[in-house]
Amino acid sequence: MQVLSLPSPKVRAWIPVLAGAAAWVVLYRSILPLWDWLVYDLAGLAPDTRLGHAVHFFFYDVTKLLLLLAAAIFVVSVLRSFLSVERTRALLGGRRSGLGTVLAAGLGGATPFCSCSAVPVFIGFVSAGVPLGTTFVFLIASPLVGPVAVTMLYAMFGLNVAVLYVLTGLTLAIVAGTIIGRFGLERHVEDFVYQTSLGKGFDPSRELTWADRFQIGRDEVVDIVRRIWPYLLVGIGLGAGIHGWVPEDFFARVAGPDNPFAVPMAVALGIPLYTNAVGVVPLVGALYAKGVALGTLLAFMMSVVALSLPELILLRRVLKPRLIAVFVAVLAACIIVTGLLFNAILGARLLVL
Q1: Domain for residue 2, yes or no?
Q2: How far out from the chain centre does Cα 308 lie?
Q3: Which residues pair with 200 in a beta bridge?
Q4: How far is CA 239 from CA 45, 47, 137, 150, 232, in A?
Q5: Three-class SS of residue 135?
Q6: Cα 6 from Cα 19, distance rounded (Å)
Q7: CB-based contacts of 272: which residues, under 8 Å, 6+ apart?
Q8: Rounded to whole angstroms, how far apart are CA atoms 149 and 156?
Q9: What residues make up the domain containing 39?
Q10: In this structure, which of 113, 159, 284, 299 has its CB flanked by the most CB atoms within 10 Å?
Q11: For residues 302 and 308, what is the distance between their CA atoms, to the nearest angstrom?
């Protein structure tokens, strides 16, 4: 009698992932008609009223973005399991050419760190011999061009705006980091940073299996969603309120395209805020629907994500005040120029699908 052999461990590891992907597709395609029925038919709210539109906006965007975030976090976490932080530092260490700068921007976008990780990442890069300018390129690109921000922008605005944001964010990180590196401010890094040992680095003695990598992805989804869901609810809630009740002429006066100081004002307002893409993208989407120019909103989002006040406070542990001031001034100027350029070239809505 022939005995049927069980699938290999690699195949068994892929089965639940493929089943979960199929279930994800079904859920994602079902949420719009589901909330149409629950809000408009079952609850009896009219779609042409502010209340009905705001309620539908809130629940639909919460479920849509949670699904998109879960997928993005899982995929990125599995990919990141092939490249440790130590390997990233080793890959960039000692590179002083333009290639190293571009590579730092690309790795920053692919391996995002939140602002609370700024200090250990900075110490690790500098102690590994990564040039200061290249370190700042990574430090800017990492929170600015992450999969969460790109996924949410895609969900809100479509593919063209998401691609535009990625290209702009990477270019901005390269330009700002290169300018900072040209000032020769290495002496304004605290001395203990250069004396920090890099450590043993990545341990290659045990290679992760696909089951291990998928488990890492699932754990990251649970951990990150658990930490960010309050920001998601608050951000989308504020966005729903703006979307449904705030008069259009208010934002037209404060940050509309006719205001020549709209972009600098948006950057100045964004720096003190402490949030991330989860909290700011829903607000950006609601403000865009009210007529605020795309360049102004991208500048606001970049300042919130890449120049948050808590990150600057943490960086003070490793940077002296002059270098922090240069970092803020250069990055803020680059963001303002970017916003002004987009407003001048793109107009109000040319890139939205």
Answers
A1: no
A2: 13
A3: none
A4: 19, 17, 31, 18, 10
A5: helix
A6: 18
A7: 309
A8: 11
A9: 11-196+216-346
A10: 299
A11: 10
Q: How far apart, in whole angstroms, are the C-alpha atoms of residue 94 and residue 100?
A: 9
Q: Is the pLDDT of residue 305 over 90?
A: no
∠ Cα 73 173 299 (to 5°): 85
Place of tokens 């102004």: 296
Report the number of distinct structural domains present in the chain: 1
In a domain, 1, yes or no: no
Distance between CA atoms of residues 197 and 187, nearest Å: 18
Pinpoint the alpha helices (H) of the chain.
9-35, 50-80, 85-92, 98-110, 118-127, 132-144, 147-157, 159-182, 191-194, 210-245, 248-255, 262-270, 277-289, 294-306, 309-315, 321-346
* Residue indicated by tokens 């690790």: 124
Q: Name the residue among 196, 204, 174 with its Cα closest to residue 84.
A: 204
pLDDT for 37 = 93
Kindly report whether the global pTM for this prediction surpasses the value 0.85.
Answer: no
Is 232 part of a structural domain of the chain? yes
pLDDT in tens, 24-45: 999 989 999 999 999 998 988 8
Q: Mutual orientation of helices 98-110 and 50-80 as an angle, nearest 10°?
A: 120
Closest CA to 151 of 140, 169, 163, 143: 163
Distance CA 302, CA 276 (A): 10
CA-based R_g, the chain, Å: 22
CA–CA separation, 186 and 200 (whole Å): 25
